[in-house]
Amino acid sequence: MSRLPKNRLTIRGRIERCWLFAFRAPVERVLTELPPELEPITHGGFAFWSAVVSELREMRPAFLPRVMGISYRHVAYRVYVRCHPPAGPPQPGLYFLRSDCDSHFVRLAGNALTDFRFRTAGIGIEDLADRCTLRVVSSDAPAEAILDRHAPATLAAGSPFNSIEDAGSFLKYHPCGLAVPSSGQVALLRITRDEAAWRYRLMHVRHQEWGFFAGRDVQAEICYEVKPIDYQWNRAVTIPVRPRTD
Predict the structure, then answer these.
(1) What is 11-229+236-240's CATH topology?
(2) What's the CA gap between 44 and 38, in Å, rounded?
(3) Sign of the CA dihedral with 100 first, then 103, 106, and 108 last
(4) What pLDDT digit, counting tens, does each position of 52-70 carry?
(5) Whole-number CA gyration radius for the chain
(6) How far apart are the first and last CA of the chain?
(7) Which residues pair with 190 in a beta bridge?
(8) Interatomic CA distance for residues 197 and 187, integer angstroms
(9) pLDDT band at residue 98, thresholds of 50, 70 and 90?
(10) Nearest-angstrom CA–CA distance, 205 and 131
(11) Which sign, positive or negative, has the C-alpha torsion 96, 94, 239, 46?
């Protein structure tokens, strides 16, 4: 049986709740995780990871009405990267190493139709007025994070940024996923969203543990909470790229 083509559907939905955690790591360590078509985006001698925990609503192919959409919770682990087309500026985006979801249907459909590497896991969200607790129940990548809604967000110790605001601006979510379907090519999965409606607040993290990052030499940088917003994940456009030369 031939493999279904990946990233060929445009998907619409709503991000109802979302928290993004960014981490810095040595560039040479991150390079070992990337195909040669991609290079890490760096600042101050570091590369950057993100873990995003989100609750998605009304997810469906763009040709279907909202009422036929599904809802689930999603945790994704990505690297901030860019690729170099033969002509024109570099294309920044996020490269997915792993996705966890709390739906067996999403795992099956996601792995058949995308390059986001889905697995199933229990994902708990306790969202209270004074704190938010996020948990991932997984045999190989458990996680827990506790966010304080009253304490101010502060710049991480050893951060390469001058201020928490600088960190938040640099590590803002890139609206494009990058996948590598074959040697010398990158698939661009651009996201359509109302940029005026994309708002976030930096959060104080009281505690966090991420099994996925064990042994990956990461240091916590920032966390931000994203306001609800409609999203469209567009079908992929594949382009040739120049491989990095390290």
Answers:
(1) Acetoacetate decarboxylase-like (2.40.400)
(2) 19
(3) positive
(4) 999 999 999 999 999 999 9
(5) 18
(6) 37
(7) 176
(8) 27
(9) very high
(10) 10
(11) negative
